[in-house]
Amino acid sequence: MSQEISPATCPTANGIPMLGLGTWQNTDPDECAESVRTALEMGYRHVDTAQAYENEAEVGAGLARADVDREDVFLATKIWISNLAHDDVLETARESLDRLGVDYFDLLYVHWPARTYEPEETLSAFSKLYDEGLIRNVGVSNFLPEQLEEAIDVCDAPILANQVELHPMLPQPDLREACERHDVEVVAYSPLARGAVFDRPEIQAIADKHDASEAQVSLAWLREKGVTAIPKATGEAHIRDNWESLAVELDEADIDAIDAIEETNREVDPGFAPWN
Ligand code: NAP
Q: What's this model's pTM, rounded to 2 decimal places?
């Protein structure tokens, strides 16, 4: 099946390939580089990392090792909450570029609106990086609608995306609506609810019906919602399973059944999160 799925099969949202590879907790140096290489050579064109994952060098090694041109890859990283003062953004973004071995990022996110985040100070540094061509797009992550609106107001460069936790047990309708209103793309992190979707009977039933995996059903549902997903996968089997979600088409009854799931759960919930 994978032979039929090419990078061109993957839809894009405002230039963002809608299925990417997550890398949080993929820290074993060789394994991480190999995951990135495997994904890129399979057809993935979007890779997500962060300063806090302590694997930017390994992600960069995978990028270098893959038989895919840098310009064909949408590479995103995030500035950690201790580095969000103006000058620290400028300095540590350059350090991230060095670690990844690239001369620009396709997307640089504010990882969380927390600790040293100060809207004008932080985002003026992001705008400067944007003007200098070191980043092609500015993103935010874990922003509530009102924080997103404030960021749009103070940032000279456009905000391309808000990366938030989103999956069938955390569908975030209000946040999606706010992003849509402001023409900001939604990027779903933990799109498999860190494995919790595999145990949902509704998702298992739809997976059986389509001869698909629960992971594929969850990713197809996100795509149907117009949301970009960045599942983390380490070995080739999971990386391929997720890639092949691009061939899974859900019907209206499937979507309704997933939308009707009442149980909610949030997997990533640190004390400094804006909702706490
Ligand atoms: P996730 O993608 O929902 O789930 C990852 C887990 O699912 C891993 O244990 C992985 O195992 C397993 N898995 C992946 N594909 C599978 C498949 N097809 N079948 C069975 N198991 C599968 O969770 P996540 O890592 O939290 O989220 C994804 C990415 O979002 C992160 O890696 C990171 O890049 C980003 N993220 C961002 C934030 C933020 O604050 N902005 C927060 C959390 C995550 P293996 O590793 O063994 O393949």
A: 0.98
